[in-house]
Amino acid sequence: MTNLASLGHQISALRALKESGRITSIKAGVLEVSGLTHRACLGDVLGLETNDHRFEAEVIGLEENTLIALPERSPAGCAIGDSVEFRGGRRIAPDHSWLGRIIDPWGRPLDGRPLVSGPNPMSLDQSPPPAARRRGLGQRMATGLNVFDTVLPLVRGQRMGIFAGSGVGKSHLLGQMATGVDADVRVIALIGERGRELGAFVNDILGEEVLRHSVVIAATSDQSPLLRLGCLPAALCVSEFFRDQGKQVLLLADSVTRFAEAYREIAVAGGESPSLRGYPASMTPALMRLAERAGPGSGESGDITALMTVLVAGSDMEEPIADLVRGTLDGHIILERKIAERGRYPAVDVLKSVSRSLPSAASLIENHMISEMRATIGLYERAEPMIRAGLHSPGADPSLDRAIHLWPRLDGFISERNALGPEGAFRLLADILSGAR
Ligand SMILES: Nc1ncnc2c1ncn2[C@@H]1O[C@H](COP(=O)(O)OP(=O)(O)OP(=O)(O)O)[C@@H](O)[C@H]1O
Predict the structure, then answer these.
(1) Residue 425 above 90 pLDDT?
(2) What global pTM score does this model have?
(3) How far, in Å, is the centroid of ligand 1 from the Cα of 173?
(4) ipTM confidence
(5) Burial class (CB in 10 A: 0-12, 13-18, 19+), 87
(6) Using CA positions, which residue lies closest to atom 9 of ligand 1?
(7) Atom 12 (ligand 1): residue with closest C-alpha?
(8) Complete domains list, the chain, with CATH
(9) How does the average pLDDT of the chain come out, rounded?
């Protein structure tokens, strides 16, 4: 039935006439096309054909008699006067059969098997649910990791950023969350990863069982910025499709930084001037709108809980992407290289990280335990240089003595997995804080 409905829709969407324009200029990988300015809008798709390849380009700028288009691959083989076919706005049609599949942002299979499209094509630019009808953040989720089941809780519909330098464990943490978080469907956007990392993430980190309940949308670092840019909007479309069927969706995006870099490449090619340390001004509203599409649903729909990684070069949390994402989302998880270097994963810096679902995501007693845990770790870390220098005398400060005693247990607790959910994790934490563990 789905195949028939999908076929019916595709037939009804067919155009009787092909509309075409001509290439008038090819410069720095960007095409100028005449003859379609009456028809094309920003973001529309054009079809091209050379002796060797058929490929697409996207309209990234419009002038009175010319449109500027960025091809998805090198325009080698294209010549002045070549015909360009107008194809209209980009749409993908997610389907239940996409679970277990790896696709590209334009809905094409990457795993070598044919892919069936659903009956309802969606533009990549969907609106978020109306603010006034949206639910608030939902109930606490089990994540499989003590740190997120207690001190940094994740609730349904929450959007959290994971910030770290390169190689500090962002992808591994996303994989652990994909495996551990209790959700109906996982949608995983892999943006600008190296080619080998895609296979490693899917096979080694996700594994077959989790993949069965996931849709992976990927554009690797060697691909056109158009595909890298489309990855996050496409992942949101697929998430919205499942959310609107009442499913609880976990959206994992790795990384927002690569999305922003693709945005910058395309905006600059389209003539926009860079402003925010090289990023164009239009990127801020574009990123905020995408972030707004994740979050709680309305009515009978499910929620989209999102975790998005941000690459923070040199731990500079003030750099524009980190600063923007941190201010937009409902919490930030900071992974610290020094913690990874001593082998504690996930390398979460609990004191620098914040979940904005607190205090309401925890009971009064649990909030008290969270404060006590933070205070104990803070006390130990402030005194650590003194302790390491041998300047601490036991008995001089009982609260510091207690922090020194508890710190290794709390540090171990942060990295432990648990299958007990938040209540069980808080019981373990209570045992540690009372000295029973
Ligand atoms: N949970 C973990 N247990 C053990 N080792 C880990 C863990 N997480 C990360 N690592 C180590 O850190 C390395 C880098 O991890 P990962 O690829 O997740 O980092 P990343 O921050 O995503 O890197 P990049 O910025 O290059 O994408 C891994 O190859 C592994 O050696």
Answers:
(1) yes
(2) 0.89
(3) 8
(4) 0.96
(5) middle
(6) 169
(7) 169
(8) 18-89 (2.40.10.170), 92-355 (3.40.50.12240), 364-434 (1.20.1270)
(9) 90
